[in-house]
Each structure stands twice: as structure tokens, then as C-alpha cells.
Design brief:
The protein contains four helices and 51 strands. Strand 20 (295-299) and strand 21 (305-310) form a beta hairpin. The chain is 7% helix and 39% strand. It is mainly β. The longest helix has 23 residues, at 2-24.
């Protein structure tokens, strides 16, 4: 009915135009100003009405209505949202939590939390070669944080010379503004340089004295808290975090060094080592004193607990907090209130409430919790996303979402930002220490069901590899088990991945690893070897489990197809170079970047730079200048059904370019790098039908799209389209919901 009405309106508009031309050719009417005015007004109303009526007819699809939401961060907008990581924290008697970390994308390396909210951030910790650190402490007047200051070249202000980094203590007032002092360094004179060799690893105050762990020199340095002048120092090997007991003596973590295990040592203020020490620990990462004078220790070894010691005489462990085994207790990976993972901070307030931060492993993200003295969870602040994106489990209709390390359960009936529940953490470093996620930085996620079983595929910012994970709830609960990996060919004759990981990898070329014996380790007989063109465009995994790879080659066969050869007895998908197919690239492309193939309809979507719209230089990392659809792909068709020009750089400044594409249901989605705008095209015709921008739910803002799979889309059974977009800046994934 709508198409018939459109045809009639368009036919009417053509006839109307013909009549207008005839009328305007009548000379005497052209001389009448009154007639011309009335005619213009009348025709304007008619044409405008028709234009409004047929506005969506130019695309063949009505304008889409959509809402914005997000996942992975407790707060969806504003400057005060949960930071990327917490690597150190100090809890004040009133329950205010002060934090520090090396890096936060939005520049809030050091934030202040209270009652589950972010109430402040320390200024000027980011940019100008500055960064945070892994120590923080507070007294009645000041906040002290560990930080780094790099060189800035020739400048009139106070910066280190080229090739030098200052490892500093920076002082702030309690409002979060830098507090300079007479001999302070840096542009605002608020920095105390303690080393140029390694970072500060511990901070604490006693009365008017500030104690600083100088790791490189094996020293505890003591400064006046007001003048910041050095008073004295004493030797402690590998000093780390510091806390002060009720007798005003120091407890200091001595980090492990080679075969020497970690300990917690006891010192007087003058630097005399006291006889008490704690050695029955594996990996202590943080310490604090509670309101009863007991020592709290973050044990980041296999126990994943906070240990509690009575230290009045000889230290004795009198308790622990959290489930033994942490998040791997019970159902491994399943999130529960008392299951901890990757501990980086502990503390307590004057009322006995307990504060613990979990960072996961390889800096998975912030999970800050407050518990009552009895162990009841009182609040939780989550910042789980950094350079990451989500994808939906097709079997559960988008109810289950996965990022590279997290599993979320969705309830789409709830308000924006409230739909997600953190369900599971899928990385287990104790059982699978060779998990590629511990040694690389994946950021693009594909969730696939192969023969009904769930698999997770991950790639990275440079499309240099494709990692494969399987699930076995009976043996590993919610944990994703390393199952396989593809890597690209290195340009030089050396291993593709340098360093000690993975073991036994081929000395040159590219390889496919499959975990043949199911133990999650890279072993000598588990590699398939080959050599190929070294410049990768992108990866794709289709619904059957076939893997596709686009090369930026111009030899006419830039597409590699790895058909699934089955699933082995351990549950790993099988791929091989012997079964790989080289497929012909359509001649319209001279630099292929992305591909998405759908076997149910035998449809291929390709993007890249074309002969008609070439790249401005070697514009790496983007999706190209055009998207084209090809039907009957497996039958050899290389003539596009349609091709569309997408935003791309024509100036060399990359002010406009497309970072990523995704096809789902009725639409093709493309997102731009700097503006993070999503262009929506009709999958049947290629016509643009909508443009999505971050809504008020996320402050109408987004950071740049940094990754080649920064957009993933999914069509639900009710016709609704979910579009997930990386939002690296404020630490979340933006989710657009397009009504069905």
C-alpha cells in the first residue's frame, strides 16, 4: 500500500512539474507579479507537502526511531564516571575512597568515591606526558599520589630533559587541586621528584612525615608533609605498599624478586626493622589497617581473598574476607558479591565497613565494592570497559552479551543504562596462564554458535590475530577456554609475536594454533604453518563457523576462506591451511579492508578503498571508502548488487573516515572515527536511511572509534536492531536500540 501511494505521488509530482513549465511559458502571466507570487506560494505549499510526504521515499525505508543506552560502566555520562582501572586506593575514616592508576582515557587517573558515587577527581594527571601511578595516601590537609612526568622537548616550563622520566609524588589539596610547595618541580611546582629509574610503589603518612617507597634504590624516603623536604631514608629491598599501625610503625610489602617470595615487613619510623613479619602469602598487592588495628592484606594469589591478621604480637592470621578461590569458587567465573578477582586495593573506615577493589587480570577494569562489617554488599561501582566492544549470543536473542573478558545478562525492559547485569568474568589466569588475553590486547568480539555450541572469537586493534575460545560449563563454569588462534605473516623473517609467548611458535611466517589436548597451553605439535601476504585488512567468522580473512593485496585474490573442518574431541573448531581457499576479489577494490559473509543467503559485503575512491596515502586502520554487496557469492558472482560511498578521508587529515562496519538484519551500519556517528543503510538497496548519534542518556558524547570492529550489530527476533559501539573515552559500550 505504501509503495503504491509513493508511486502515485511521484507520478503526480512529475505531471505537476510539466504543468508548471507550460504555465511559466505563457508570457503575459510571467509579467503579472501578483500571479507569480500566488503561484509560487501555492506550488511551494504543494511541493513542500509532497516533499514531506515522500521524504522517506528516497530511501525506500521510513526514518528509524532509536534510543541510546550503554553497558559496562555504572555511570553513562559526565566527567565523574568510574575510571578504567584502580591500581591503588586509600580509605579515609569517613569512608571516602581515594584512588590512583597509571592511565584513564578521559584523564581521571585519580578519582574520589563516596557512597557509591564519584564525587571528585584530581586535576592535571593526564596529557603533557603525565600519568598517574600505583600509590596514594591522604592526611588532614593533603592528598599525595604517585605519578610520572615525561619530557616535552624545548619548553620554558619545568619538564625533564629528553629521554628522562620523573617519578614523582604530587601533592593536592583535599578539593583535588595541585598544592605547590617552595621547592616543588613541574610546571605548577607541585611535584616532588624521587627517582628517574622506576616508579613509586608505596605512600603513607605518620604525623608530619610522608613515607615513600623508592623501588629502584631499595629505599624508603621520608619527607616533611608540609615543606616536602627530605628528612632521612632507610633501606628496604623491593619496597611496595605501606600502611601505618596504631603504634605508628610501618608495615611494608616486600615484593617478590625472582626466587625470593613476597613478604610483609615491620619497621619503626626511624627505619629500624622490627622482628615481626608475614611470610605465609603468595602475592600481596595492597595493605591497610582497620578500625580494630588489624592488618588487612589483599592476597592476589590463588586464594583471591582479603586476609586479616592480628599484629599486636607475632602476626597471626585470624580471618579472611571473600570466597576462597575468588571468582573461581563455586561456578568458576560466575560473579557473586563475595567473589573477588585481581585484587589491587583494600581498606576500612572508622565504622568497620570494608572496601575492596578488583581489577581482574591484565587490567580488565574497575570493580570497587563496599561491604558492611558483617559482609553484606552495600554498593558497587563498575568500570569494566576499555578499548572493547560487545556482541550478542544469537541463541539467546541478545539476552547474553560478551566483551573480551566479561559476560552480561540483559533485561531490555529496564531504563537506559540499567539493562545490563554483570554476570561472569571469563578469564582464569591460574588454570590457563597462557590464555592469549593475558599476553595480548584483544578488543573486537564475535560470538558464534557452531553446531549449537558457543564460541568466542577475538581480534585486536591491528587485525593481527584472531583468538578462539570454547566453553565447557561442566569443567570450567563461565570461563572461556583457549581453543585456537590465527596470526598474520610478519613482514620480516622472525616470529610474528616477539618475546617468550607463546612457546614453540614457528620461527617465521604465519600459523594456526589448535589446543589439540584441551589443556589451554601452546605446545609444539599444535601449530599449522604457512606464509602469506603480510598486510591484513580484517577478519570475519560466519554463522557456520567458517573463518574469513581480507588481505590488503592487489593480486586479485585478497580473500582467504578457511572452511570449518569440524570440531575435535576436545571441543575445538578445526581449521587448516590445506583446506584454505583463495577467492577472487572484485576488481572495483584495490585495497580490501573488511568483509562479512552470510551463508544462509550467499551474500557477501565488502568494504575498502576502490579504484574510483582511492585512499589518501596509506590510511591504515579504517574501513575504506565504499561498501558493496554481492549476491550469489559462492557461485562466482563478482558484480555488486549495489555499492555506496561511505565517509572517508580526502584531505590527509582524517577528519572524516569510517572506522568499522557491521551488517545485521535489514541494515548495514558504519561508524566514523572522530565523530562516532553511525550511518545506517538499507541492506537490500544500499540507500542511507538514518544517522545515529549518542543521545542524552550518555551525555550526547562519545570518544573516537579506535578499533576495526568498533561497531557490532544484532537483530532480535522481535525485529529490534541492537547496535554496539566502542566508547573508549568514557569507558563503556554505547548501545543503540532501533525499533523493529
Amino acid at each position: 500500500m505504501k509503495n503504491k501511494l509513493l508511486a502515485q505521488l511521484l507520478k503526480l509530482r512529475r505531471k505537476l512539474n510539466q504543468h508548471i513549465k507550460k504555465i511559466l511559458n505563457i508570457r503575459y502571466l510571467q509579467k503579472s507579479k501578483t500571479f507569480n507570487f500566488l503561484l509560487s506560494l501555492t506550488l511551494g505549499v504543494i511541493v513542500t507537502t509532497i516533499g514531506i510526504t515522500t521524504d522517506w521515499a528516497t530511501t525506500g525505508t521510513p526514518t528509524l526511531t532509536y534510543k541510546t543506552s550503554w553497558i559496562g560502566n555504572t555511570f553513562g555520562s559526565g566527567n565523574l564516571r568510574v575510571q578504567n582501572n584502580i591500581e591503588a586506593m586509600y580509605v579515609a575514616p569517613d569512608g571516602t575512597v581515594y584512588t590512583n592508576s597509571h592511565w584513564d582515557e578521559a584523564g581521571t587517573e585519580a578519582e574520589i568515591y563516596k557512597d557509591g558515587k564519584v564525587i571528585g577527581a584530581l586535576g592535571d594527571t593526564h596529557g603533557w606526558s603525565r600519568g598517574g601511578g600505583k600509590a596514594v595516601t591522604v592526611n588532614s590537609k593533603y592528598i599525595y599520589i604517585a605519578m610520572t612526568q615525561g619530557s616535552r622537548g624545548n619548553t620554558k616550563e619545568d619538564y625533564p630533559p629528553e629521554g628522562t622520566t620523573w617519578h614523582c609524588v604530587r601533592r593536592y589539596d583535599l578539593s583535588g587541586k595541585p598544592a605547590p610547595f617552595p621547592e616543588g618541580r613541574g610546571w605548577d611546582k607541585s611535584m616532588l621528584i624521587t627517582s628517574t629509574k622506576s616508579e613509586i610503589t608505596g605512600l603513607a603518612t605518620v604525623g608530619s612525615e610522608l613515607y615513600v617507597s623508592d623501588f629502584a634504590s631499595n629505599q624508603i624516603r621520608v619527607y616533611d608533609t608540609d615543606t616536602m623536604k627530605e628528612l632521612r631514608s632507610f633501606t628496604v629491598a623491593n619496597p611496595g605498599a605501606i600502611t601505618i599501625d596504631p603504634q605508628k610503625n610501618l608495615w611494608i610489602i616486600q615484593s617478590k624478586n625472582g626466587a625470593n617470595p613476597a613478604k610483609i615487613l615491620h619497621y619503626s619510623q626511624s627505619g629500624k626493622q622490627l622482628p615481626q613479619q608475614i611470610a605465609d602469602i603468595v602475592e600481596p598487592t595492597a595493605i591497610a589497617i582497620n578500625h580494630q588495628g588489624k592488618l588487612l592484606v589483599a592476597e592476589n594469589g590463588p586464594r583471591q581473598q582479603m586476609l586479616i591478621y592480628d599484629i599486636k604480637d607475632k602476626p597471626v592470621q585470624v580471618g579472611s574476607f571473600g570466597s576462597k578461590g575468588g571468582i573461581y569458587a563455586g561456578v568458576p567465573g560466575e560473579v557473586r558479591d563475595l567473589k573477588l578477582y585481581g585484587l589491587t586495593g583494600v581498606g576500612a573506615d572508622a565504622s568497620g565497613n570494608i572496601y575492596i577493589n578488583s581489577n581482574g587480570f591484565n587490567k580488565s577494569g574497575t570493580d570497587l565494592r563496599k561491604f558492611s562489617p558483617s559482609g553484606k554488599l552495600m554498593w558497587r561501582s563498575l568500570g569494566l570497559i576499555f578499548v572493547d566492544n560487545a556482541d550478542a549470543d544469537p541463541k539467546t536473542d541478545g539476552v547474553d552479551l560478551f566483551t573480551k573478558q566479561e559476560h552480561y545478562l540483559m533485561n531490555y525492559s529496564k531504563p537506559a543504562g540499567k539493562q545490563w547485569t554483570y554476570k561472569a568474568y571469563t578469564l582464569n589466569p591460574f588454570k590457563y596462564p597462557q590464555d592469549p588475553r593475558l599476553h595480548t590486547s584483544p578488543d573486537g568480539t564475535f560470538v558464534r554458535r557452531i553446531q549449537g555450541k558457543p564460541f568466542l572469537f577475538l581480534t585486536d586493534m591491528y587485525s593481527s590475530f584472531l583468538q578462539i575460545y570454547r566453553f565447557n560449563p561442566a569443567t570450567d563454569g563461565k570461563v572461556a577456554i583457549p581453543a585456537g588462534m590465527f596470526v598474520g605473516t610478519n613482514g620480516a623473517d622472525k616470529p610474528f609475536l616477539t618475546g617468550n609467548w607463546p612457546p614453540h611458535q614457528p620461527e617465521q611466517g604465519e600459523w594456526i594454533w589448535r589446543d589439540r589436548n584441551g589443556n589451554g597451553k601452546f605446545e609444539k605439535n599444535e601449530y599449522d604453518r604457512s606464509k602469506d601476504y603480510s598486510y591484513l585488512g580484517g577478519w570475519w567468522v560466519d554463522s557456520k563457523g567458517d573463518v574469513w580473512k581480507a588481505l590488503r593485496s592487489q593480486d586479485g585474490t585478497a580473500i582467504r576462506h578457511y572452511p570449518l573442518q569440524g570440531i575435535d574431541p576436545k571441543g575445538n573448531p578445526i581449521y587448516s591451511y590445506s583446506s584454505m581457499e583463495k577467492q577472487t576479489t572484485p576488481d572495483i577494490f584495490n585495497d580490501l579492508r573488511r568483509l562479512e559473509y552470510f551463508p544462509q543467503t550467499d551474500t557477501m559485503y565488502l568494504s575498502g578503498f576502490t579504484v574510483d575512491h582511492p585512499a589518501f596515502g596509506d590510511d591504515t586502520g579504517v574501513a575504506g571508502s565504499e561498501i558493496a554487496r554481492f549476491d550469489n557469492w559462492s557461485k562466482g558472482n563478482r558484480t555488486p548488487k549495489w555499492r555506496i560511498v561511505i565517509p572517508y578521508d580526502t584531505t590527509g587529515k582524517r577528519e572524516v573516515s569510517t572506522a568499522a562496519i557491521s551488517v545485521a538484519g535489514d541494515y548495514v551500519f558504519a561508524v566514523t572515527v572522530k565523530t562516532a556517528e553511525v550511518y545506517v543503510y538499507n541492506a537490500k538497496t544500499g540507500a542511507q536511511v538514518q544517522q545515529l548519534k549518542p543521545g542524552p542518556e550518555v551525555g550526547s558524547e562519545s570518544g573516537w572509534i579506535d578499533i576495526p570492529y568498533g561497531i557490532r550489530a544484532f537483530r532480535r527476533s522481535n525485529g529490534e536492531h541492537l547496535v554496539f559501539v566502542e566508547e573508549n573515552w568514557k569507558g563503556k559500550v554505547i548501545m543503540y536500540r532501533l525499533a523493529g
